[in-house]
């Protein structure tokens, strides 16, 4: 392995100086073809620089339908030519992920949980590398459970923490645990908070986001198929989380932050809370209210993009 | 919490005596309504016993398209009335999972990775509980990487093991690690192997299945966005896995086995291998060959179901 890459692996700041380097894998240079299996794309079958070379903003989220709506929304917001209803799924040969490109914006679904988003991120980072993209920003726009916040609040993640409240991600590599930092880009987070202050109806805070590998027991829900703890045990855990700065809980942020940092990609996590977990576990809010909540991270990130493109001041 | 449930939590054999008990959560009895959020179903909005009361076989797999195809295939195999193309997605109000019911068979997608399948399993087990289903069998039919097996081989899982080759699943509950057994039903596995011997073109073995939380670094692939190990390191890890009995690698089996066992549900994991990992990492097999491979677990489980229903001898 090249010694520069070895040094860079634990020192992303070395890579930040060269915005063109994103992958951290010397083996890729020796491969004749790279098949991005879960995207149904490849370096021999597709002209990736032509398809994706102008991408400047990548937005990812769990639900395929939501990421299609986001692509249509961005189409409208950027006042691009053509009919926004005609956005087509670039990954249509597979149902693992959906991907839409609208001008300089890529919108991709990643399913639920760390493993699902990590497969997508490996292939996305390789795709952006093959396409020779530079200076792009990656956003996760998602939903979450709030901790001590009113439903509908948008949380821009300060630190992504694990279920022990540690700002780290443990990746098992060949049976050995490797611990990676989950630090996100402070500048982008602050810019997002500034953007929120310029919008109506997008109440936004910066706080820590806890990432769990389970929606029920892992997040202290009392309504799963399995539950061995009491209401008081649950409240105590949520209180502890709140006291360490956790404001929302979701299932992808740690690996998202860790992989982006390892590959020197500027990134932010922007999730709306669908409920306040101190008040309950089930999501019983009416469908139309939930739909409006889910649009808030989209509205915020769209405003950020428009400002960066000079479309609004 | 009731003392019987406390006892049962670590002794599933207590529950096996009463096939009607599946959930292990005393809080559920106190809930007026149970919203199965990711299925878009609920106890007040849907008559779950009427919709699902006759289910005897539940088949789950990662891809929504594949689970729709499986439902259509089962419709044909069981010679049910009506047009097999008309199977409808019961979860059509959400894109998190897809669900099809064909006679006594339920076919559901679960996405990729432990967190994604665990959300589905929590809601599925509650659904079957609310529907008062008894004596059903749960199958995971999926795809995997083979370890020392020719591509296209079907592996019926003996033990589901983690990336340290341990037959256990670690679940974090309120910040504490709980270790659960991943033992599967030996009788069902043997019956599946017997079924395979009655079929042409479904080469089948029983072996251990390793479940990882990452497709690239976690499975020793050299072609991810991040890779810090050599080809020899990879081969050594795969060799170790093989020597402990691992014959394939996928991303859901441990939590599937652990949750089914905790809830006293008879279950099996049946995955086809898409490649032999000793030969490579990328899935470059032609699409039509992959499609045929992916049908093999379906054909095997369909034969099992038909035998159980007395449709074949």
Plain-language structure description:
The structure is a homodimer of 313-residue chains. Chain A is of the alpha/beta class. Helix content of chain A is 34%, strand content 23%. Chain A is built from nine helices and twelve strands. The first copy, chain A, has a five-stranded mixed beta barrel with strand order 6-11-10-7-12, surrounded by four helices. In chain A, helix 5 (114-130) runs parallel beside helix 8 (253-262) and helix 6 crosses helix 9 (287-308). The radius of gyration of chain A is 19 Å and the shape is globular. The N and C termini of chain A lie far apart (46 Å). Mean pLDDT of chain A is 93; it is low at 1-18. At the A-B interface, helix 5, strand 8 and helix 7 of A face helix 5, strand 8 and helix 7 of B. Chains A, B: Belongs to the PNP/UDP phosphorylase family. Chains A, B: Pathway: Pyrimidine metabolism; UMP biosynthesis via salvage pathway; uracil from uridine (phosphorylase route): step 1/1. Chains A, B: It is an enzyme of class 2 (transferase). Chains A, B: Its EC number is 2.4.2.3. Chains A, B: It holds the Pfam family PNP_UDP_1.
Structure at a glance:
The structure is a homodimer of 313-residue chains. Chain A is 34% helix and 23% strand.
Number of helices of chain A: 9
> How is the main sheet of chain A built?
5 strands, mixed, barrel
* Greatest contact between two chains: A-B, 72 and 72 residues
**Contiguous runs where pLDDT drops below 50 for at least 5 residues of chain A:** 1-18
Global outline of chain A:
globular
Structural class of chain A: alpha/beta
């Amino acid at each position: 392995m090249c010694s520069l890459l070895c040094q860079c692996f634990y020192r992303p700041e070395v890579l930040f100086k060269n915005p063109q380097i994103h992958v951290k894998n010397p083996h890729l240079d020796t491969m004749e073809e790279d098949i991005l299996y879960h995207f149904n794309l490849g370096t021999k079958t597709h002209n990736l620089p032509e398809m994706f070379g102008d991408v400047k903003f990548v937005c990812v989220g769990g639900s395929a339908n939501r990421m299609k709506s986001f692509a249509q929304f961005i189409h409208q917001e950027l006042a691009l030519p053509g009919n926004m209803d005609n956005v087509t799924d670039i990954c249509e040969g597979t149902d693992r992920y959906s991907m839409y490109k609208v001008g300089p914006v890529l919108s991709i679904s990643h399913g639920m949980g760390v493993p699902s988003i990590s497969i997508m991120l490996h292939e996305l980072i390789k795709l952006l590398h093959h396409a020779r993209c530079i200076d792009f920003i990656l956003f996760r726009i998602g939903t979450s459970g709030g901790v001590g916040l009113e439903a509908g609040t948008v949380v821009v993640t300060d630190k992504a923490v694990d279920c022990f409240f540690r700002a780290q991600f443990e990746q098992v590599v060949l049976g050995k645990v490797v611990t990676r930092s989950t630090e996100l880009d402070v500048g982008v987070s602050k810019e997002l908070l500034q953007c929120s202050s310029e919008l109506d109806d997008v109440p936004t805070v910066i706080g820590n986001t806890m990432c769990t590998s389970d929606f029920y027991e892992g997040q202290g829900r009392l309504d799963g198929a399995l539950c061995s703890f009491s209401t008081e045990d649950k409240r105590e855990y949520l209180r502890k989380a709140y006291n360490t700065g956790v404001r929302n809980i979701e299932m992808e942020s740690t690996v998202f932050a860790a992989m982006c940092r390892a590959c020197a990609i500027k990134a932010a996590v922007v999730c709306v809370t669908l409920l306040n977990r101190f008040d309950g576990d089930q999501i019983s809010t009416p469908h139309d209210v939930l739909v409006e909540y889910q649009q808030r991270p989209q509205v915020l990130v769209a405003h950020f993009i428009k400002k960066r493109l000079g479309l609004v001041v």
